[in-house]
């Protein structure tokens, strides 16, 4: 299979973990006879420095023509005092909107031998396996431009959704639940917000189309509590943009570290942008200690969702599992009796596993 992949390293540790993604994909290409070409472009703070804008036209153009996009992370203190339109985050929001990537899938599954790395009790997190389906191109993030009024003493942010924007993401939630354990939790704030009332109505209307899915509505504040007191009760959570942003960071504690969580941002036709849930971590940038697992697992999601390469995706996921099972971990995870490694070593271990795994498979199939 021949595919063109655009790499958007962005800022901070984004640059380091993108290198890991490239190494892993090169190994997959070699082992499975694919041809992946990589084309790197700027976004976020790096683009502001180089082009004076967080999302240059050339970047949008390249992403539009690519088969898939991998993004590291954006942001950093250097640009914190910039005006809103010149903040690195604008680049990320802009590319999500430009490619119409409305469905953000964030799977959260604890790795068995890392359960004790979570600050939560092992018996609470054990067995948790959920998927957050976050709406990504609407809501407060994209209201009529935020403004300051009254000499800067009052502010306005607008939360708006059209029926069709809600319908398409709710459909994604139902479909994901059908493919998993059949439980959809719709998270809203319908006791206060009009947008949530419409959201809840639409979920109720859609129920009939998905008779095999059980549906529950949970208010976002209660959902935040349940996520850490009883996470195993969840299968698929579908929710609007800001709630999904907050809940996915919260859910990351189930896995011991935000450095473990991948995400896929998809358009209707399967075009996608894949990025770790974590940010640019400026405090550890350039030190070679960042956890590349979230980025590497994001490449597995890319192979699965955009290229339909399930076997290849599975090899990457197995590689990560096996390296973690062997006790290797980066500094973000507190693992008793573990073996602390840096970004490069962790990546190499995963790459080596991919190569050895495939070689042994080939030997076995040749032999029998
Ligand atoms: C995320 C990030 C972004 C978001 C920021 C960097 C704009 O936190 O992908 O979760 O809020 O969506
Ligand atoms: Mn976030």
UniProtKB/TrEMBL annotation:
NAD(+) binds at residues 76-89, 279-291. GO terms for molecular function: 3-isopropylmalate dehydrogenase activity. Substrate binds at residues 96, 106, 134, 221. Belongs to the isocitrate and isopropylmalate dehydrogenases family. LeuB type 1 subfamily. Its main location: cytoplasm. It comes from Neobacillus rhizosphaerae. Residues 4-350 form the Isopropylmalate dehydrogenase-like domain. It comes from the Bacteria. Mg(2+) binds at residues 221, 245, 249. Keywords: Amino-acid biosynthesis, Branched-chain amino acid biosynthesis, Cytoplasm, Leucine biosynthesis, Magnesium, Manganese, Metal-binding, NAD, Oxidoreductase. HAMAP family: LeuB_type1 (MF_01033). It catalyses: (2R,3S)-3-isopropylmalate + NAD(+) = 4-methyl-2-oxopentanoate + CO2 + NADH. Homodimer. The record marks 141, 189 as: Important for catalysis. This is 3-isopropylmalate dehydrogenase. InterPro entries: IsoCit/isopropylmalate_DH_CS, IsoPropMal-DH-like_dom, Isopropylmalate_DH. It holds the Pfam family Iso_dh. It is found in: Cytoplasm. Its EC number is 1.1.1.85. Its cofactor is Mn(2+); Mg(2+).
């Amino acid at each position: 299979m021949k595919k063109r992949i655009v790499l958007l390293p962005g800022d901070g540790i984004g640059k380091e973990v993108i290198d890991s993604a490239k190494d892993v994909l090169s190994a997959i290409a070699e082992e499975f006879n694919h041809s992946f070409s990589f084309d790197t472009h700027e976004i976020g703070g790096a683009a502001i420095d180089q082009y004076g804008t967080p999302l240059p036209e050339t970047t949008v153009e390249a992403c539009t023509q690519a088969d898939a996009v991998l993004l590291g992370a954006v942001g950093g203190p250097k640009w914190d005092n910039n005006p809103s339109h010149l903040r690195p985050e604008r680049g990320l929001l802009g590319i999500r909107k430009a490619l119409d990537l409305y469905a953000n899938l964030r799977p959260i599954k604890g790795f068995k031998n890392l359960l004790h790395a979570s600050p939560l009790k092992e018996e609470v997190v054990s067995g948790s396996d959920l998927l957050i389906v976050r709406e990504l191109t609407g809501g407060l993030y994209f209201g009529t431009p935020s403004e300051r009024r009254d000499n800067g003493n009052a502010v306005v942010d607008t939360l708006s959704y059209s029926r069709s924007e809600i319908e398409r993401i709710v459909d994604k939630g139902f479909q994901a639940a059908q493919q998993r354990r059949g439980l959809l939790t719709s998270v809203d704030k319908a006791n206060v917000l009009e947008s949530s009332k419409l959201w809840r109505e639409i979920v109720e209307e859609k129920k009939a189309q998905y008779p095999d899915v059980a549906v529950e509505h949970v208010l976002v504040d209660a959902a935040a509590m349940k996520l850490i007191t009883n996470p195993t009760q969840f299968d698929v959570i579908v929710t609007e943009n800001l709630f999904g942003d907050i809940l996915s960071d919260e859910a990351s504690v189930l896995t011991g570290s935000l450095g473990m969580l991948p995400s896929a941002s998809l358009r209707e036709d399967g075009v996608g942008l894949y990025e770790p849930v974590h940010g640019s971590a400026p405090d550890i940038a350039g030190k070679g200690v960042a956890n590349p697992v979230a980025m590497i697992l994001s490449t597995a999601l890319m192979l699965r969702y955009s290229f339909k390469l399930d076997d290849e995706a599975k090899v990457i996921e197995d590689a990560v599992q096996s390296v973690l099972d062997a006790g290797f971990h980066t500094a973000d995870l507190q693992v008793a009796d573990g073996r602390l490694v840096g970004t490069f070593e962790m990546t190499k271990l995963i790459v080596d596993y991919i190569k050895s795994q495939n070689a042994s498979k080939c030997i076995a199939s040749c032999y029998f």
